[in-house]
Amino acid sequence: MSKKKFEELDLMDNFLVLALASDLEGGPAYGRLLAEGLLHEKVAHVRVHAEKIIPGSDEIRRGIRMDVEMQSFSHKPEENELPDKVYDFEPHHKNADNLFKRSRFNQAKIDAHNLYSGEKDFDNLPDLCVINILDYDPFGKGKAKYHFRNMCAEDVTIPYPDGLDYYYFNTSSPNDEDDELNALLRYIQNSTEENATTELTRQLHEYVTKVKSSPEERYRYMTWGEYIDYETKEAKEEARIVGHAEGRAEGRAEGRAEGLAEGKCEAMREVIIEVLSELGTIPDAIAQKINSSTDMEELKKWHKAAISVDSIPAFESMM
Questions:
Q1: How high is the pLDDT of residue 116?
Q2: CB of 68 within 8 A of CB of 16?
Q3: What is the total count of domains within the chain?
Q4: Half-sphere exposure for 315 (CA within 13 Å, toward CB)
Q5: Does residue 239 sit in the same domain as residue 137?
Q6: Among 59, 208, 285, 312, which residue's CB has the most CB atoms within a 10 Å radius?
């Protein structure tokens, strides 16, 4: 397996995006600059979360991982106050799954997470903007930006104010009439000083440079078990795990959570062994350790390690 050098990371690369979004100063600035550059929206007060997890409703329902969530407020918010608007920034290198249904699923989970139990006034549901940033053209029409809103099919002039917007930005074709947008897309695709040609991209480059100048972030990149963009493979493995687990749960008493949990652990153990087998012969000690584990969090950690390493000794060092 190969990976970019730390200095070569761009704002399409998961590690750099998460490192930047996690920075106390850089995260809010990154979100504000993207909202301004991509959408021409200025936001006052924000909260930014990198890799925000919204779990499924139970053990067998899928949750989501938002790459970068930005919550915007018109005023300085209280700790648990719901935002006026939510921005979901999602950079994607490859068209690994049904992107459009994925966006629909993410939207449903985000909305469900942003209205308190017992709330009767749906005016309090925050507006939502799902922003997919892609290095390919998802529709093949050669546009740099595709913007979708719900509308009336019989009369598109009728407003449908549900507060939901989907955006797909194509960094491989920065040919919009908006020169500022073109410059930003070029910078996201190739985040170098030469491409920081506008005031907005120069500001963004300052924060990117700060991350790349950090010895701690360099070390994290060298040792981080998730530095490889393995989302495609991980999604397939997840589907297989759920399938195996459900099959093993059929023969057990219906509704027994412990039976389903054991089925998922067993399926996860099988998948880890299968992935490692592609790297070579698995030593008995490693295989025994995997097959005896009943800790799902431990198995998930090993699964992520298995699909990110290029040798069994490298995997063993991460156990």
A1: 87
A2: no
A3: 2
A4: 29
A5: no
A6: 208
